[in-house]
Design brief:
Strand order of the largest sheet: 1-8-3-6
Number of domains: 2
CATH topology of the largest domain: Jelly Rolls
Largest sheet: 4 strands, antiparallel
CATH class of the largest domain: Mainly Beta
Radius of gyration: 18 Å
Distance between the termini: 11 Å
Strand content: 25-35%
Number of helices: 6
Oligomer: single chain
CATH superfamily of the largest domain: Jelly Rolls
Order of helices and strands: HEEEEEEEEHHEEHHEEH
CATH architecture of the largest domain: Sandwich
Shape: elongated
Number of strands: 12
């Protein structure tokens, strides 16, 4: 489920009327941490990651955005500059919505304003829950939580377990939990030894879902729009 489900069809048409579609090549930065927050971005096609660089050079990936997702910040929603960097993970077609075009619509359309409040709150909750998993359950819990998030929208169930349809390397997984590839390797090997996961053509297969849930104390209470990459 994309993160624009909170908007009505009419509101999405209004946003479409003020967006300018721009192409970004794989690896291109859409904005940098510290840039002025004066635009929102709607992914028509492609995949984008939102990350923060640490002082030691490691990246912590907070979000992956897909087709139909909206991301970015504007001062009208409480941000004067971007707190993260956004990079195209694949070739992307992205609709850019300038704050100067959006703000009059928010003032004149109470329904659109309310939907943006819901979207902004949802995105804040999304970030808080990811950071909660990392702070309270450590790297192991954060990795387990990441695998559970990948299930929603990026998996298929086969007789031998849950297979992922998205290709993420151990380095990618490490960036999602603020760790190193070596640490992720060790955790995954321990889970494989316990029979909780296996590999198929180099991709992780979850064999024991309850085992993974227990690591991060998952109670299946998070709404699907929140429990995602």
């Amino acid at each position: 489920m994309n993160n624009t489900h909170v908007f009505s069809e009419q509101s999405l048409k209004i946003l479409d009327s003020v967006m300018s579609v721009t192409s970004y090549k794989k690896g291109a930065n859409i904005f940098w941490e510290g840039d002025s927050a004066d635009k929102l971005f709607f992914i028509v096609q492609g995949r984008v990651k939102l990350f923060k660089s640490a002082y030691d050079g490691r990246d912590l990936v907070l979000h992956y955005f897909m087709d139909g997702d909206l991301f970015g910040s504007i001062s009208s929603l409480g941000s004067t500059e971007h707190s993260f960097t956004a990079t195209a993970v694949s070739d992307c077609s992205i609709g850019v919505i300038a704050e100067k075009d959006l703000e009059p619509l928010l003032i004149s359309n109470s329904s659109l304003s309310f939907e943006f409040m819901k979207w902004n709150g949802m995105m804040g909750q999304f970030t808080q829950i990811k950071l909660r998993d990392l702070i309270f359950y450590g790297k192991t819990g954060a990795l387990a939580s990441t695998l559970l998030r990948m299930i929603h929208g990026f998996s298929r169930t086969e007789p031998d377990g849950i297979h992922f349809t998205i290709s993420l390397t151990n380095t990618d997984l490490a960036q999602l939990i603020g760790s190193t590839r070596e640490t992720v390797n060790r955790m995954l090997q321990a889970w494989k030894k316990d029979g909780a996961i296996d590999y198929y053509h180099g991709s992780i297969v979850i064999k024991d879902l309850d085992y993974i849930k227990a690591i991060c104390h998952c109670e299946d209470k998070c709404p699907l729009p929140i429990c995602r990459l």
